[in-house]
Amino acid sequence: MEDIEEYQLEITEDIRETVGSKPVQPILFVGSGLSKRYFSGPSWDGLLSNLAASCPKLEYNYGYYRQSRDPPEMGSLLADRFSQWAWDQNERKFSDMKPDYEQNPDIFLKKEISDRFKELTPETVDELTEEKLDEDLTIEDAANEIDLLRDIQPHAVITTNYDTFLETIFNNDGKEDEKYDVIVGEKILRAPHKSVGEILKIHGSVTQPESLILTSEDYDEFVNRKRYLSSKMLTYFAEHPLLIVGYSATDPNVRSILSWVNQLLPGDEMVAEDIYFLNFCRNIEELDEYSLRKRIPLGEERYISVKQIMAKDFGWVFEAFASGEGFEVDIRYLRKLLANTYEVVRSKSSRERVVDHQRLEEVAEDQGELATVLGISAEERDRGFLFDHDLSPSDLYDETGLGSAHKFKEKVLVPIYQDSGVNITGFKNSYHIAFWNEGESPDYRRYSSAAVGLCNRVMEGEEYNLNIPESRINEDHMERGLDLSPFID
Predict the structure, then answer these.
(1) What are the boundaries of each domain within the chain?
(2) Which residues contact residue 309 at a Cβ distance below 8 angstroms, ignoring those fewer than 6 apart?
(3) CA dihedral sign, ordered 425, 426, 429, 433
(4) pLDDT tens by residue, 448-474
(5) Which of 51, 393, 424, 425 has the smallest number of Cβ neighbours within 10 A?
(6) Distance CA 142, CA 129 (A)
């Protein structure tokens, strides 16, 4: 037992070091083993075997056909026999699906799969039952593992599972809008930008039966699209730690995804330092040694070595992956922020909405600038660029005792201009903010509490520094700012 504890401690420290050294969240790649663990979800072969047993159009049992066919070929055979069953003149079971047949001849089988999974899959974690859990799990164990899995707050979850249990885990929190955006099948390829907080169902979902990758024909089409999918996945794997869970090392899906990862390794290097393969090991207490590496074949005499985690209890593994700093705000809002920012920036500017490209460039180059825009600060009084400018011009005049715009120009703006050549009201900065339509005056101006301090120092003749990046100052700031010409020779 001491050896197991030492092994777990070594793996835990390694995970924490890997996750903690990266300013990003892990990616999860999840297979059917996780569904089997929590609600006896079937393996692919188990699913097809159950379907074959229910189909009256098969002459022999599943094993007879399976000995000469791989799973996709079995999927094609079953799709054909389910179609025959559906069109039997005495069969009414599939009558409501016949209008969809021309678009998708496999719809009868795929709809049957969807219906079975919907009956089998718990809608909430509270619906887990002892008889459906893995034999070594209790309800309390399972609930604890799932809580720790949620705590990882993965950047994204990639899965070949058809069922909706991952949605239950990551989205079932009693709120109307989902934390993670579920993207199914081909929609993954059409997504216009990379986002955070996505469940990518690359083999389809039971919520869209026609999307299921099941038959040989489906797989041929999937392989044809694979290079586009792999390029999208590489954007994730390039920077994020990856945890593979719910698969066997011989699973073709694991080999496929690790083949994509292998493209990132330099030269002939075949060792991935930030990929972890969680290997379920029921008899772990009986082992004499615990391997820290897993060598996985990729085909054509190619291999890749990843870090192996051997475990019967998944809780400590998920807890280690959740040890990073995580997201300080709800992931759904980060996702919406990224998506909406993308849409605003790519949209055509109009009189109603003008994109300040210079400001965007500053934000992109400087974390401090981004924090200012988002209202993030180490000091509670700093509420962000937009939120800190809450004084109207009249508020500013009242707080400084200036009383009017004329005095503001004469006593403050002109001395600053004479010292620095800058009209601080001609662009957005820490003292002043305004939004201009093309060639027009701004709809409104606002000032910050920092502007009050600046005004007082200038009027008192005290030393002051303009806390404004030079790149922020527009060439046309004199034309855009308050008119100082009556005071300047």
Answers:
(1) 2-41+123-321, 44-120, 348-489
(2) 11, 15, 276, 277, 278, 279, 317
(3) positive
(4) 888 999 999 999 999 998 878 777 787
(5) 393
(6) 10
